[in-house]
Amino acid sequence: MTTTKKAAILISALAVIAIIAVGATLAYFTDTDAKQNVFTLGKVSGTLTEDGSTDGTKREDGGRDYTSITPGKTLSKVPVITLDSNSQNAYARMKIEYTGLTAPQIAEFQGGITLNPGWVLGSDGYFYYNTVLKPGDTATIFNTVTIPTTWGNEMAEKSFSMNLKAELIQSDNFTPTKDTAGNITSWGNVTIEAAK
C-alpha cells in the first residue's frame, strides 16, 4: 500500500472517529421536556323559581296552588329563570304545558298571559328569551295570568295544571334560528340534558 493510500485511510478513520465523537457529544447536549395541558370545561346551569308570586299557596316542589279562582281574576304568577353564578353565558327558553284543559281552553288561557319584553313564542311551542344571560342574571317570562272571562259554568270546580319547564343552552359557539325581526324562534334540533 502506498503512503498516500495509508494517509487517506488514516485521515478517513480519524474523520469517522471525530464524527462519532461529535455525535456522542451532541447526544449529551439534548434534552426533553413535557408539559401537561389541563382543559376544564365550563357548564350551563340555572334554576326556575316562583318566589315572587304572591297569590296561591307555595307547594313543596316550588310551584303554586291556586284555589277558588273566578273568571276574570288576575293572579300573581312570576316564573323566574336564574343563571347560576358559576355558569357560562346562556340562552334561555321555557316550555309551558297544560293538563286538564282542551286545546281551545289552552288558547283562551294563554290569551290572559302578557309576556315580558324580550320573550317570543317560537314556532316549536317554546318561549324564547332574546337576551344572552350572564352568570347571576334573571329572566322573568311574565308576572300575572288572567283567568278567561269566557269561562262559565262548564269550568266550575275544574282543576288544571300549568307546568313550566326552563331550559338553558350555552351562548358561545351556538347560533339559534331567528326570524326576520331578529327574534330567536328555535334552537334547532338540540337535545337539552340536565346539568351534572
Automatic annotation (TrEMBL):
NCBIfam families per UniProt: cognate_SipW (TIGR04088)
Organism name: Eubacterium barkeri (Clostridium barkeri)
Name by which UniProt lists this protein: SipW-cognate class signal peptide
InterPro entries xref list: Signal_pept_SipW-depend-type (IPR023833)
Region called Disordered, residue ranges: 48-68
